[in-house]
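#onboarding

Welcome to the new folks! Below is a worked example of what a typical request in this channel looks like: someone posts a single protein sequence, and someone else replies with the predicted structure as tokens. Don't worry about understanding the tokens yet, we'll cover that in week two.

Example request:
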Amino acid sequence: MIQGKLYDYLHKYLGDYLFGFDKSKLEIAILSGSIDLKDVNVRPDKINPHLAAHNLPVALKAGMIGQLHLQYNLLSCLSNPFDVIIDDLQVILGPRISFDDNDHSFVEDAESNESYDLSNCYNIHHHQMRFSFKDSEEKKEDQKEESPADMLKMVLKNVTLRINRLHIRYEDDYYADENPFAFGFICDQFVSYVSPTEWKFGVLENNKFTRSEPRDSDDLIVRETNIINTRIYWKSMAEMYIPLSLLKETKDLEQQIFDAISLEDMRALMRKSFADENLIDTFSVYSSLVYNTRESAMEEALANQRQRVKVEILITKIFFNVSPNMLNDMGSFLEYAQNSKISKEIKAYRPYRRPITKRKDDESEKLKRKKKLICRDWFFFAVWAARLKKIIQAAPKIREDRERRLEEFKKISDSLTKNEKKINAKSKRGEGERLPTEQSGESGEEDKVKELEQYLSKMK
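Example response:
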């Protein structure tokens, strides 16, 4: 009975996100405190909306979990951490593409409607509110918000994570259709756990450290994360494990991509060594994070009295293998990631209507005018998007120039302050009296004032 209730609870929260979630793949041992879930696949159609909501430039093509093991202590489950062990986690990502072309966000006119004016173009705020505002308000209703700091504290203190054989792959044959590429991250073991001790380095140049119990251990959480035997590969003109055309054709099937490619074949592809395609040869990363949970820790950190978060990282030797084709692919990926980052802002000003591509022999003048105006709006939109991209690209240079000017202003201001002190001291001794360091000539206060005025006029 208890197992049935637990299965219903897990199915409620996990069933929508996994293919093939049923009792045959779930093993529950309540008294020993373990739950095992085997051979399940993640549903891309349920995960991708969450990735898009955070404006991430990637979308899930396929996710495969060999085994998920949850270990807990039944008698002290609230005080002891949960152990989460995942074997053979394999993820295939691709560029973020909406296959339905966001049809719901366009306004469709009847064929007989030949009217078009400026009010049809950019009243985008009311248009978007119709589709998104109502849904977002319904989700927020009757939900109690939990502090992000409390959630972070709970995760850091109560979850131990171990992933054996992790492989994350990104492939693109859409934006890079002429030169498809793929890159990936492979590691033999990823471990993150709560540690009773923190690291102490004697000399910064030396990687050797000692362990000691932290002061104020009740307020501190020490968490160590190790990534063992990691390698990063990059392949130009790569084969696509899940081509975009196949992904489109299978998006409406029951198992989606797994109705076209068997799970065993997909896992066999993901288990390749990729040794001859390494961008970074095998290395390991060891890290320690110390997090201060005391409520006054943020104020102390701002006052430079104590660190709120301390992170220490050790990395073994890293060897890169870079080719010109890899650099070209990296440039393409970075450009796509930047365009994806600003896509949300650009989409807010996208015209309501698609260009009308159907042609008729007996088109009226009003319909011809409507076609021209819609094309004009899309042209203006493309120009605006290109300008926005240039502004974003130039932002670091503008920021650097502003910091340089402010530094110059600070130097001039300090110089004027020093000269003002000298003038005040001179006026106290007598109008005609000179300091020993000023016997050779004038101090140049007027020149400094003119220089400052010229600089301020440039800043304006």
